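Q: I'm a student working through a structural biology exercise. My instructor gave each of us a protein and asked us to get a predicted structure, then write a short paragraph describing it. Mine is 2-oxoisovalerate dehydrogenase E1 component beta subunit. I'm not confident about reading structure output yet, so if you can add a plain explanation after the C-alpha cells, that would really help. Here is the sequence I was given:
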Amino acid sequence: MTQIIDRPAAQGDSPEPWESVLTDAKLPAVPVATELTMVAAINRALHDAMAADEQVLVFGEDVATLGGVFRVTAGLAETFGEQRCFDTPLAESAIIGVSIGLALRGFTPVPEIQFDGFSYPAFDQIASHLAKYRMRTHGDVNMPVTVRIPSFGGIGAVEHHSESTESYWLHTAGLKVVVPSTPSDAYWLLRYSIGSADPVIFLEPKRRYWARGLVDTSAPAPPIGRAAVRCNGTDVAVITYGGLVDTALHAAELAATRGWSLEVVDLRSLNPLDFDTIAASVRRTGRAVVMHEGARTLGFGAELAARISEELFYDLEAPVLRATGFDTPYPPARLEKVWLPGVDRLLDCVERAMGQP
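A: Happy to help. First, here is the predicted structure for 2-oxoisovalerate dehydrogenase E1 component beta subunit. I'll explain a few features afterward.
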C-alpha cells in the first residue's frame, strides 16, 4: 500500500463535506471576495472556525498575548478568551501531547509550532501517536488535530527557522499534509483541515505570508486532495507547491519568451495526492519537472518522479527532472538565494527536458 494516498474518484475530504463548513448559523455574514494577505486569511479562518465550534482551541508559543510571531493569531484571545486561545511553554512535544489528549476528550485542537525547525522535538508524539490513533481504534476514535507550522525559507531567517519538513510527515502514514500557495487556499484548506477527523500537518509558506489575494469565504475552494492548474501549457508540466508556485509562474512567463509553454500544477494537498491532475498534465505535455525547496535526496520530488515514470512511462518524451534545494543543511541568510531553487534552476531543467543545447 502506497504511503502517498490518492484522492478517491469523485470524492474530496470525506467524510467531512465542505457544506458543513458553511452551514453553521453562528457565522456572521462576510463580504464577498475580500483582498487579504495570507496572514489575514489564516487569521480569518481560525476566527471563523472558533466562532462556528466552541470545541476549537488554538494554542502554542506566544499565540495569545503576542498574537504569534507573524501575528497570525492576533485578536483571537481577546475575542474568544484565554480558555480557547492560550500560550504554552516552549515544549513542542508537550504541545502535541496535550493536543492528542484534548482530541480524545472531544476538543478540536489547532496547535501552532512556532517555526518548522522547532517541530523535531515533537516528532515522536506526531509519528508514534497522533498519526496512528484512528487506525489503532479501527476509526472509532477521531483525531481532529490540525498542526499549523510556518514553513520553508525565503525570508532570510536564522538557523532552525527555514526547514522543509514535508517529507518526514509524508512518510508517516496517517497524516494529511497540506500546503497552500494563495490567501484563498490558506483560508479554505485550513477550514477543511480543522473540520477533518484525521490529523493534518498544515505547512504555511512564510515567504507568501504577505502576498495579497482575493478571499471569498462564501464560495468554497477545492477541498483537500485536489490540485490546481495555475497556468495552462503544452510543453512541460511544472509540479510544485507552496511558495514555489509563484516562482514557477514567473518562470512560465520567461519561458514563453523562448517559445516554451509551461503548465504549472499547484499540488495544494501532498497527502492525499491528486495524481489524476498530475497525470493529465503530464499526458498533455509529455515532460515533467518537479520543484521543491527541500533537499534533493529522498525529497517529495523523488516520489513524484518515480511514480510518474512508473505509471506514465509511455506518455513521457523526456526523463522527469527535479529542481530542488541542495543536500546540505539550510545555509545562513546571506546564502539563501543561492541555495533555494529559483527561476534559473527551473528553466535549466526545462531546457534539458526540451532537449535544447
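A: Here are two points you could use in your paragraph. The first strand starts at residue 34 and ends at 37. Confidence is low (pLDDT under 50) at residues 1-5, 7-19, 22-29. It's a good idea to check both against the output above yourself.
Q: Great, thank you!
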